[in-house]
Amino acid sequence: MSVISRGFGARRRESDERLPPGQYLTGDFPVLSAGPTPRIPTESWEFVVVGRDGIRHTWTWEELHALPIETITTDIHCVTRWSKLGTQWRGVAVERLLDAVGDDAAFAEVFSYGGYTTNLSRDDLVGGRAWIALEFDGEPLAPEHGGPARLLVPHLYFWKSAKWVHGLNLREHDAPGFWEQNGYNMHGDPWKEERYW
């Protein structure tokens, strides 16, 4: 007589199919930061794109809000192995800002209030893949989650979604940011487990 487990051959749950390798599901939204939480008043906040020519292009809080704001429902994955499914954000597509600048640089250094940096390729910032997020779950983005605005790049590990985002330095060549200089992968694709060097 053979014993067959009732679960043998069963289909994976949808949540399992949406979890990259090595990740676990959480209902919380853990707060992880490399330093203190900056408090940036929206009256003095700005987003800056510095082209390869050195020219600064800036948007105030009001100017950013005057652009089309999209609703994004997406899964997010942290390199520390938690994943949160079906998160809802509202923000401005980064591609819209890059189009306004007219610089087709292959890479960008993302910089934040508080000094944090990370690197991204242009391909990871365009095509509906990255936003300046202003709201989470129907509320203004809380400072501990990167408010008043953070980068949202949900197809990569969440360290690439820089909190307290201030702008982009457009570059011809890639260069590591804060965590990348400290052993994290230069790209960060959770489906390939690009966690560390």
What does this structure look like?
- The protein is mostly beta strands.
- The chain has helices at 14-17, 61-65, 94-101, 178-181; strands at residues 24-25, 46-50, 56-60, 70-77, 82-93, 107-112, 117-121, 131-136, 139-140, 150-152, 165-171.
- Strands 1, 4, 5, 8, 9 and 10 form a 6-stranded mixed β-sheet that branches. Strands 3-2-11-6-7 form a 5-stranded mixed β-sheet.
- Strand 4 and strand 5 (82-93) form a beta hairpin.
In short:
The chain is mainly beta. The chain has helices spanning 14-17, 61-65, 94-101, 178-181; strands spanning 24-25, 46-50, 56-60, 70-77, 82-93, 107-112, 117-121, 131-136, 139-140, 150-152, 165-171. The N and C termini lie far apart (50 Å).
Name some characteristics of this structure.
Sulfite Oxidase, Chain A, domain 2; 6-stranded mixed sheet; 5-stranded mixed sheet; 31% strand; single chain; 197 residues; globular; 4 helices; mainly beta
What percent strand? 25-35%
Can you count the helices?
Answer: 4
CATH architecture of the domain at 47-68 and 89-192: Alpha-Beta Complex
| Rg (C-alpha, Å) | 18 Å
CATH homology superfamily name of the domain at 47-68 and 89-192? Oxidoreductase, molybdopterin-binding domain
CATH class of the domain at 47-68 and 89-192: Alpha Beta
State the oligomer. single chain
Arithmetic mean of pLDDT: 91
Bin the helical content.
10-25%
Structural class comes to: mainly beta
Question: Which parts are unreliable, with pLDDT below 50 for 5 consecutive residues or more?
Answer: 1-12
What is the tally of beta strands?
11
Shape: globular
Spell the H/E element sequence.
HEEEHEEHEEEEEEH
Please name the CATH topology of the domain at 47-68 and 89-192. Answer: Sulfite Oxidase, Chain A, domain 2
The biggest sheet, with number of strands, parallel, antiparallel or mixed sense and barrel status, is: 6 strands, mixed
Distance between the termini: 50 Å
Domain Oxidoreductase molybdopterin-binding: 35-179
Region (Disordered): 1-30
Protein name: Molybdopterin-dependent oxidoreductase
Pfam families: Oxidored_molyb
